[in-house]
Amino acid sequence: MAQITMTQALNLAIDEAMAEDPGVFCLGEDVSAKQGGGVFKVTQGLTEKYGAHRVRATPISETAIVGAAVGAALAGQRPIAEIMLMNFVAVCMDQIVNHAAKLRFMSGGQTPCPIVIRTTTGVGVGFGGQHSDMLEAWFAHVAGIHVVTPSNPADARGLLRASIDANDPVIFIENILCYGLKGEDPGPGYRVPLGKAAVAREGSDISLITYGRTVLDALDVASDLAKEGISVEVIDLRTIAPYDEATVLASVRKTGRALTLHEAVRPFGTGAEIAANIQEKCWDSLKGPVRRVGGTFSAVPFASHLEQAWIPTKPKIVEQIKLAMGRL
Amino acid sequence: MAQITMTQALNLAIDEAMAEDPGVFCLGEDVSAKQGGGVFKVTQGLTEKYGAHRVRATPISETAIVGAAVGAALAGQRPIAEIMLMNFVAVCMDQIVNHAAKLRFMSGGQTPCPIVIRTTTGVGVGFGGQHSDMLEAWFAHVAGIHVVTPSNPADARGLLRASIDANDPVIFIENILCYGLKGEDPGPGYRVPLGKAAVAREGSDISLITYGRTVLDALDVASDLAKEGISVEVIDLRTIAPYDEATVLASVRKTGRALTLHEAVRPFGTGAEIAANIQEKCWDSLKGPVRRVGGTFSAVPFASHLEQAWIPTKPKIVEQIKLAMGRL
Amino acid sequence: MPAIDRDKLRDIYTRTMKVNRTDEKFRALLMQGKVAVMYYCVRGQELVSAAAMAALEPQDYVVCTYRGQGEQTAKGIPMEKWWGECLGKATGTCKGKGGTMHITDPATGIMVTTGVVGSGLPIANGLAMASQNNGDGRVTLVSFGDGAANIGAFHEALNMAQLYKLPVIFLCQNNRYGEHTAYADHTASPSIAMRAEGYGMKGVRVDGNDVFQIYPAVKEAVERARAGEGPTLIEAMCYRMMGHFFGSDFSYMPPEHLEEMKREDPLPKLRKVMLEHQFTEEELDAIVAEIDAQIDAAVAHALAAPLPDVDEIYRDVLEETA
Amino acid sequence: MPAIDRDKLRDIYTRTMKVNRTDEKFRALLMQGKVAVMYYCVRGQELVSAAAMAALEPQDYVVCTYRGQGEQTAKGIPMEKWWGECLGKATGTCKGKGGTMHITDPATGIMVTTGVVGSGLPIANGLAMASQNNGDGRVTLVSFGDGAANIGAFHEALNMAQLYKLPVIFLCQNNRYGEHTAYADHTASPSIAMRAEGYGMKGVRVDGNDVFQIYPAVKEAVERARAGEGPTLIEAMCYRMMGHFFGSDFSYMPPEHLEEMKREDPLPKLRKVMLEHQFTEEELDAIVAEIDAQIDAAVAHALAAPLPDVDEIYRDVLEETA
Ligand SMILES: Cc1ncc(C[n+]2csc(CCOP(=O)(O)OP(=O)(O)O)c2C)c(N)n1
Ligand SMILES: Cc1ncc(C[n+]2csc(CCOP(=O)(O)OP(=O)(O)O)c2C)c(N)n1
Ligand SMILES: [Mg+2]
Ligand SMILES: [Mg+2]
């Protein structure tokens, strides 16, 4: 099969959806041809194909961007809004949380709000404190919205396509460090259903539950630890919320141990919900407490070696697994 | 001792701080004398005493309100900003999270940001989907900020005073349904230190960990269950984040069982962090999984009987306690 | 004075009285303790809403606020459904889940009623953007207050609307107060309308109590929008003759203001216009009587209607829970 | 043409060249691969920043953006600390924790450097509010871009500033682009300055490449602010002569624009002004040579400086972790 990058995978998903459905359109800062198709080039080539009305470069006005997406969705269209970096959701939470997520419920089901909000973030590029946060936990805590993130190009294509299909709002989180990641192209029409996790690697000793970029770290750690005789099962959530509880619980019932992992800061992160739920539902299967690894509880620092120390590195993951296994 | 309402307690704390420190001032929509001292009257009488510069009625501009508080704090003052209802933080998260919470860290300690953001919320008054949310989990997940909420007038006075003293930003959450609550006035100069929980009622069978309005429900449930021979220890966190881990863990080590309770929706709520942490740190003391009770995972509905069904009612709390005790 | 034909005058009068009688009825029910919900009175602003809705076509979109009774009833939401929603009944537009601050009725074009100040403007742009994209010829009107003109969403929405020449109308109902705060205490410029210029947009300020100002202003904006000429900001001057919401204190309003407000009351003014245009007292009274009858029937229906099923709290969260 | 005395001209020239030589040095280091960090070039905007800082007093406050090198160095942050921060060293203003986008140096009045577009404006109001409250006579200047003028925070901040007559100056550096988007593609009005009127504020547009326009404009705004006459919005026209950040592509800029930009380059223009004012080539070269020597020393110092302690990730989170 052909190899594609994450960026190409995303672009293909959007391209395909736009070709099939005239109601799909993109909007966001710098997204159109005149600006080079977005600062991360995800929307490159689409203006030429679908025209300026369907690839709208916007002012720096995130509230107006998401608000416009909400309004267009109420009128039956399927907007894909780009928020350049995840920290900027902080200026438009109202449109996302008080409106997009609630309009189906508050209208008694009359006005579903099928929008996709694509955004990106990531620690390790030296962007500093205001451009690196992973804020998925905020959205996971809000009813009425899907939170999705891919860890590889095939999933990127399939999850984005499914997100555009969805009849509810989706926060679609990309990781800057993964745009160049290569992988197999699953081909046209490919969908990965929302709410379904993947067992990225099977194992029998411990379930390592993660998503996005850290799936790569998890897989590395799993293959390293296999050499030491520890069999790690890696679960890639793909949809962070509402997440695939069945797959997670089945895995933990099998392995008897669990570790959650995310780049977001650990306290009150998504790992807390997963851990709390596992211990409640799998109490009798657990051989020890569920452990959690996450980013350091501070703003992301600028200096490169501080930033590297900040992230949940592989040694930290290994340490927690060994603790869980009683091997430390 | 004299009895005061929650509203009076809050007003006294601010009044006292303004009298002692000329750098303390209030700003927010409708807060000054000309508007009657705020829609919930917490700032009543302060304009007359301290002048219009120190009780500034603002336009409906939450970003400008919190931003102004941040700037004034950088210049050495101690602003108290009022965000009329908690859902409106969604329009100004950037100033709170990307700025107030991070400026100490990002400046390498040069610019602490001592602001108090007072806000209120609550389910049960028929305000519907956009005016009733409890969003403390968002802030708890952010480094560099204290999240505080009182459950009685004495704590309100003491916690607000301590929040104004604090050299870091504080989100101070009030509950609309509690403004009229009466209790003892602890008197001038009273402080309740941030980060210290209260054991609101001692017990030996299960630790019920909660904060704010639901402390009242917890105490009711505890006294009801005492009659059935179940001894419930009620922990009032008072500071939701960073919370008093020592008090919580000590209680659970004693009782061997724990239940978290909040009005906020259950998934990815603050109870998840507390539960995840308890099971990790008190594994050997636990007689069963930590359980959680929270609001229904939807927007808050309008119709009164739906709203009542939405909240974590006392029967739901009792049910979880009995489950934990093996009595169901 | 631009002319308005008699049919349109009758239409505007009917809509105005529908708004007013609904408002009176709601206040009566609240006063009698027959219902106990949040209600944001529209007394003093009836004509603005009614004239604006009369300038739209049925398929046009409207976005309004918690103080949206005027737009909602004047646009034509069936009264039974409207009252049902306000009373939290299963028969309401939103099955009682939205409530007085969140009335939605796509069938009559009431697409969103928001409780967050200013947040309707960006959403209105989106509705208009959809119309621009799919060429359906619809126009979107968003109503908001003077206080809302100071929130960021207003600014972002106006700039974006003009940039794309969206078919949208920004109708600011300047009732002189944002909750307890008077205009001059929240805004330093003499008008909201003049802000339009800073977006390269057309802006007009009109007397919202004068049918010959408000109706033509909206009508022209609708025509411009429909012709692809872009958005208009209309500032309609009016008065909020009651407190911010029913039952709330309004002692902060100075007596001169209360006097002025009474002098400018749109209802006697409109009645006078109607009489000048050869409508008879009897004709006008008959219109009101019919409205009252409809309202009474709708209220009776809503009062008798069933409560929503308790499981509604789990429904309509996501599609799979629908 | 308003006169600027020779001392002030020398001062402005020195600050301008400090900004420019710092920019050149940074680009050289990046090009040579000696450092690898995000850097937002200020080529083409040197004079705006320098003249603005020259119009302030040392105790005045400044809020700037990721593209704030000009304000930062021209206001007088010690070079060693500035370079230390940009290189992520323990000797930096923020111990390497803030970085190029987040330089803070309260000693010289650089109070916040924000990476979130437009968010500095409300914060500047707060600094100015503190000065108004405590009567310290300080003025606050906030610098931002043309793109930032379309975000809600701009609007809210300007209205509030005028309402309270805060001693604040809003300096919009209109470099014709917001990232890849040209002015006309993000703003429908012919100028940003004209928006001031909608807040009852004074607004002026000036040529930021002409010292006789930009310096007096800021100076006057400072005087008005200091005298309690309130805020001013200044739109300084200039060019961003490089891409959005160092190394980023700028193929989206049309050739005519690049031509125009070169013609309007503030540096040759300022040099000409200096010569016309009887400064000699030698004098001017000596100023630059001294700056270069200072920069070289500062860069050497920063390159040799220690990295911050790894435990810094746990410090300065809350007071108890300081
Ligand atoms: C973002 C936000 N801030 C504050 C409020 C609280 N609030 C509700 S209505 C209102 C006043 C709005 O005034 P205006 O826009 O003039 O509308 P009016 O009520 O006069 O119709 C305020 C402050 C809110 N709903 N949303
Ligand atoms: C709220 C927000 N949205 C988007 C961005 C991404 N971004 C960074 S700089 C920039 C362009 C800003 O343009 P302008 O205000 O003109 O300043 P300039 O870069 O030209 O100095 C954008 C869109 C951001 N930092 N913050
Ligand atoms: Mg108003
Ligand atoms: Mg620019």
CATH overall fold name of the largest domain in chain A:
Rossmann fold
Q: Could you give me the name of the CATH homologous superfamily of chain C? A: Thiamin diphosphate (ThDP)-binding fold, Pyr/PP domains
Structural class of chain A: alpha/beta
Radius of gyration of chain A: 20 Å
Largest interface: A-B, 53 and 53 residues
Strand content of chain A: 15-25%
Shape-level CATH architecture of the largest domain in chain A: 3-Layer(aba) Sandwich
Helical content of chain C stands at 40-55%
CATH class of chain C: Alpha Beta
Treating each run of at least 4 consecutive H or I residues as one helix, how many helices of chain A? 12
CATH superfamily of the largest domain in chain A: Thiamin diphosphate (ThDP)-binding fold, Pyr/PP domains
Write out key terms for the chains shown.
heterotetramer, A: 328 residues, alpha/beta, Rossmann fold, 12 helices, globular, C: 322 residues, two-stranded antiparallel sheet, 11 helices
What does this entry look like structurally?
The complex is a heterotetramer, with two copies of chain A (328 residues) and two copies of chain C (322 residues). By secondary structure, chain A is an alpha/beta fold. Chain A folds into two domains: 3-184, 3-Layer(aba) Sandwich (Rossmann fold); 198-325, Rossmann fold (3-Layer(aba) Sandwich). Chain A contains twelve helices and 14 strands. Chain A has helices spanning 6-20, 46-50, 62-74, 93-100, 103-106, 136-140, 153-165, 214-227, 245-255, 270-281, 304-310, 314-324, and strands at 3-5, 24-28, 55-57, 78-83, 116-121, 146-148, 170-175, 182-184, 198-201, 206-210, 232-236, 239-241, 258-265, 291-295. In chain A, the strands form three sheets. A seven-stranded mixed beta sheet of chain A has the order 3-2-4-5-7-6-12, with helices on both faces. In chain A, strands 9-11-10-13-14 form a five-stranded mixed beta sheet, with helices on both faces. The relative contact order of chain A is 0.12. Chain C starts with 5 loop residues before the first helix and ends in an 18-residue tail after the last helix. Chain C has helices at 6-31, 46-54, 69-75, 79-86, 120-134, 152-164, 183-186, 211-226, 255-263, 266-276, 281-304; strands spanning 61-65, 110-114, 140-145, 168-174, 177-178, 181-182, 202-207, 232-237. In chain C, 60% of the residues are buried. Chain C has one domain (6-303): Thiamin diphosphate (ThDP)-binding fold, Pyr/PP domains (Rossmann fold, 3-Layer(aba) Sandwich), CATH 3.40.50. A six-stranded parallel beta sheet of chain C has the order 2-1-3-4-8-7, sandwiched between helices. In chain C, strands 5-6 form a two-stranded antiparallel ribbon. Chain C is globular, with a radius of gyration of 19 Å. With 322 residues, chain C is α/β, with parallel strands linked by helices. The chains are: A alpha/beta (328), C alpha/beta (322). At the B-C interface, α11 of B face β6 of C. The structure holds thiamine diphosphate (2 copies) and magnesium ion (2 copies). Residues 145-147, 175, 177-178 of chain C line the site of one magnesium ion.
